[in-house]
Design a protein that fits this description.
Blueprint: H1 11-16, H2 33-37, E1 54-63, E2 83-85, E3 91-96, E4 101-106, E5 114-120, E6 130-137, E7 140-146, E8 156-162, E9 168-173, E10 178-183, E11 189-194, E12 219-224, E13 234-239, H3 249-253, E14 266-269, E15 274-279, E16 284-289, E17 294-300, E18 303-309, E19 321-327, E20 333-335, E21 340-344, E22 356-360, E23 366-369, H4 373-380, E24 396-404, E25 407-414, E26 419-424, E27 432-438, E28 443-449, E29 454-459, E30 471-479, E31 487-489, E32 491-492, E33 495-496, E34 502-508, E35 511-519, E36 527-532, E37 538-545, E38 547-548, E39 551-552, E40 557-562, E41 568-572, E42 581-585, E43 591-596, H5 599-602, E44 610-618, E45 621-628, E46 648-655, E47 660-667, E48 679-688, E49 691-698, E50 708-714, E51 727-728, E52 730-735, H6 737-741, E53 751-756, E54 761-766, E55 780-785, H7 786-789, H8 791-794, E56 797-802, E57 806-808, E58 814-820, E59 829-835, E60 838-845, E61 849-853, E62 860-868, E63 877-878, E64 882-887, E65 891-897, E66 901-903, E67 907-916, E68 922-929, E69 932-940, E70 944-949, E71 954-962, E72 971-972, ...
Parallel strand pairs: 31-37, 47-51, 57-64, 66-73
Antiparallel strand pairs: 1-30, 2-3, 3-4, 4-5, 6-7, 7-8, 8-9, 10-11, 11-12, 12-13, 14-15, 15-16, 16-17, 18-19, 20-21, 21-22, 22-23, 24-25, 25-26, 26-27, 28-29, 29-30, 32-33, 34-35, 35-36, 36-37, 38-39, 40-41, 41-42, 42-43, 44-45, 45-46, 46-47, 48-49, 49-50, 50-52, 53-54, 54-55, 56-58, 58-61, ...
Amino acid sequence: MSRTPLPARPSRLALVVRSIGRPALVGVAAGALAAAVLPATGATAAPSDAAAGQSFHRTATYPVYKNLPKDVAASSATVAEISDVSKDGRTLVYTDALGKRIGFLDITDPKAPVGAGSLSLAKLGDTDDQPTSVAVVGTYVLVVVDTSESFAKPSGRLDVVRLSDSKRIRSIELDGQPDSIDISADESYAAIAIENQRDEELAPSGKAKGDLPQLPAGFVQVVDLAGASPADWVAHRIDLVNDDGSALPSFVDAKIVEPTDPEPEYVSINSKNKLALTLQENNGIVVIDLATRAIEKVFSAGAVTASGFDTKKDGKISLTDSLTNVVREPDAIGWVDDTHVATANEGDWKGGSRGWSVFDATDGSVVWDAGSSFEKIAVKHGLYNDDRAGKKGPEPEGLSIATVGGTKYAFVGSERSNFVAVYDISDASAPVFRQILPATNGPEGILPIPGRDLLAVSSETDTAATNVRASVSLYQLGDGPDTFPSIVSDDVAGNPIGWSALGALSAKPGDASTIYAASDSVLKPGQIFTVDVAATPARITRALPVTKDGVGVDLDIEGIFARPQGGFWLANEGATGAGNVLHRTDADGAVQETVTLPTSITSHIKNWGLEGITATNDAKGEHVFVALQRQLWTDVNDQTETVDGDNVVRIGRYDVSDKSWHWFGYQLENPQRDGSDWVGLSEITAVDDDTLAVIERDKLNGPNARNKRIYTVDLPSTDPKNGELPVLDKKLAIDVLPALRATNGWTQEKLEGFTIAADGALYAVTDNDGLKDATGETDFLRLGRAVDAFGDQLRGTTTLSLSSPSTAYGQKPTVTVAVSGAKGIVPSGPVTIKDGSTVVGRGTVQDGTAQVTLSGLRVGSLTLVAEYAGGPRTPASASAPVSLTVAKGATSTRLSVAKRSARKGSKVTAKVTVTGTGFTPTGRVQIKDGNKVVKTLTVSGATRTVSVKLTSTGRRALRAVYVGSATAAPSTSAIDRVRVRR
C-alpha cells in the first residue's frame, strides 16, 4: 500500500488520508465481476489459440477531474483508486478518497468513456469520511468507508448503494478502519480487511517511530450475502488475535513480525470460498475458510536475496546491486488457482523485494519469484524512477488475476514507474511476461473485465499544479502488437541499457537505420544513445557516456548533432545563463572543445536556455545553429520585461571558422492566458542550408495540451547587422498533437526531440522527465518523410537535355537528366523518361545528374519528359517537355542466288537477308527480274531461302527489294546475275 503524505490536518483526517493508497480488487473473482460477466475457472489453463498474436491495446485515458460535480473546480484534488464494474461491464465505479466520493463512468464505448457523476460521502455521513474500496454485488455497490477519528480510535462502515440511482440502501458498521474488499465468485460473501493501520509518526514504547504494535489490532469482517435483500445481510467478525489480545499460536509459529498487531491489508477469495489475506507490515499471509470462518494457514512471505537491482539514487541506472534477505511485505494478493496465490511485494517500512511472487497456499512455499526481472522491465522501457532507487524501486503494489480471451493473466502494477506488467500465468510456477501497459501516475486499481476483453487501470496521483491528473485508463485485448512501447533498450551483459528523459535527436550521417538520442540531467554523466530505427519498436543499442579528460561529465543535454566530420555537437542547458554552452566531442564522446554564448545573451537567461542544436556545412565552413527555449529577460530575477518583445525567442548561428555569433528572432504563439502556461522552443534541425525546423510547444499536457508543432523558418541571404534582430517568418510543417493523442494515453507535454534521418524519415520523441511531474511514458514518433512535410522548402527542379534533336528508329541515344535540390542538398534517386505514358528510359540520379539511355522509341515526333521520383530530401519533380524526332531506321538488303546457270522454267534457290541498324526489320520483300516481280516473300529477323522460277532466257539481272515498314526504311540489294538456257 502507498501512503501519500498530505499537509497537516485534524487527527481524524490525518488518519484517513493515509488510506489513499488502497489496493485493487484482485483474484479470480474481482468483486462480483468474474461471476457476473465470465464464469470463474478453477484450474490453470493453457493459452487458447484465440489468444495467439493478441495483446492489450489502450483505447482511452479518462481524467477523472472531468467527472467532478459542476460546483467543484477542475483543479480540485480528485483521484480514481479502486474500481469495480457492473454486471454488464458497462458502468465502472471508482473510489475518490481525496474528494470523499465515489465516481461512476459509462464505459459502454471503451474508446470514449463518459463521466456519469459521483456520490458524495459527506451526504451519507461526515465530511471527513473517505472511501477505501468498492465492490459490485448484483445491482448494488458496496462502498467501504473509513470514518476513523484517529489511529487509536479506528472506525468504518459498509454502505450499500443502489447502482441505478446512487441511493444508499443500508449501512453496516465495521468496528474498525477498513482497507480492501473482495466478493466471492458465487456472491455468498464479502470479505473486508479491517487494518486499523499504524501511525507512522508514533513511536511505541521502546521502539522506533512507526513501529509495531499499535493497537487496536486489525481483523476481518465477513458479510454473509445469502439474503435476497441487503437488509438480510449479516456481518461476522474474524479476529486474528486471541480475545485477550495475545497472539494466536499459528501466527507465532509462522514468525509473523508482530502477531498481536496483524495489520491486515488485502483480501482475495477463490472459487472454494477460501480467503487469502496479506499482513503487509508483518510480512505474512493468512488463509481463512469463509464457510467455517476458521484460520486454515498462516505463513511468512519470506525474504528475497537476489542481484540485478539499482539501489542507489545517483542518477545512474545501473543494475549491478543486490538485495540481501529483504522481506517481501506483500500488498495486493490474488488467487492464481485454488491452491496458489500471487502477491505484489511492494514493501512498507522494512522491506519490499521490488517484484512479485507465487506461493503454494497449502504449505506457504514459494513456487516462483520475479527476482529483479520486474525492475528490469521498468529499465528496458525507460520507466525506471531513479529517485526511488534507494527505496523500493518500481514498487509493485496492485495485482489482479483473470482469464481474458482464453488466457489466464496476472496484471502487476508499478506504483512508482507507472505501468502494469502483463504475464501469462497459465502455469502458476512459470509466469511468462507478455506485455507492458503504460499508465498515469500511481496505478492503484487494476480491474480486468473479462466478459468484454477489457482491463481498467485507475490511478491515485493527482497534482493539478503540474497537471499530473488521476485517470482511468482502458485497454482492450485485440489482434496484433500494441503501439506501446515505441522504443526500448537492448540487453548488454544480461541487463537492459538504462535510459530515460530522451530530449534530443540527431540523424547518423549516411545511415538511414540509425539515429542518436541524448538524455538530460536526469542521468549522470551525460549519455548519448544509439538508436536502431529499422526495428519496431525502435531499439537503444548503445549508451555512450560523455567524458572530459577521461572523466564522465554531468550535463543537461538538450540538443545533439552528429557531425559528418565525426563526433557530436552537444547543447548543454545550464542552471544559470552562463551554464549554457556548446560541447564538441569526438566519436567516443570525449569533449574536445567548449563554446560559450556571448555574455550579452547569457546575462539575460536565468533558466530555459539552450534547447536544440544542429549544423550545416558549405564552402565557408561549418555553421552551428542553436535555439533558446524562452525569451531573454531584461531582469532575470524579475522575468517580467523581455529584451526582444513579447514571445520573441532567439535562434543563434555560430560560425566555426571565425567563432562569430549571429542572432535571429522567432515569434512564438501566445500561451494560454491562465498563468500556468508558457510557450517555447524545444529543438532545432536543419532541413537544408537555409531552412531550419523547430519544435514549438506549450507547457500543457493531457487534455489541455494545445501547441505541439514543428515549424520551418528560412534564413535571410545576408547576416543581420549589428543591433538588428530580424524576426523570421515561420510556416507550420507538422502539427504533432494528433500523433500524440493517437496513443490514447495522457498527452505528453515535452515534445523535445526531432530529426531527419539519412533516408528522409522523420522522427520525434517526448522527454519523460525521469518520471518527475510526468507519467514517464516516452512517445517515439514516426512522422513520415521530409519531402512531404517540407516539400515547399525542399522543392527542386528537373531538366532534360538531348545531345541531338533527332535520331533513327533502332538507335539508343543517351540523354542527360539534372536535378537541382534545395541549398546544400545534393539530390539522388530514380528517374524515368517517358514518351507520353510509355517509359523509354530509366536511370538513377547521383550527385544531381543521371545519364539515361533511351530505347524502344517510336517513329515520329516524340515529346519526352523526365520524371524524378524524389530522394531523401528532394521531392519528386518533372522536367519540361523536350521534342525528339525519330526517323525510320536504316535497312540493308542482300540477295544470294545459288546457281549462275539454269534451264528455262526451272527453279533456282535464292537467299534473302534484310538487316536494320539497331533493330530487326520485318515486312515484304520482292525479288525482281528487271522490273518483273518473280517472287514475293516476307522477312522477320532471319535469312529466308526461297525457290525462284525463271521463265525468260538470257542473262537475267535479279535483285531483292525490301519495301519497308512503319519503322524501317526500304532498301534494295545488289544485282545477282543468272544465265538462263533454253
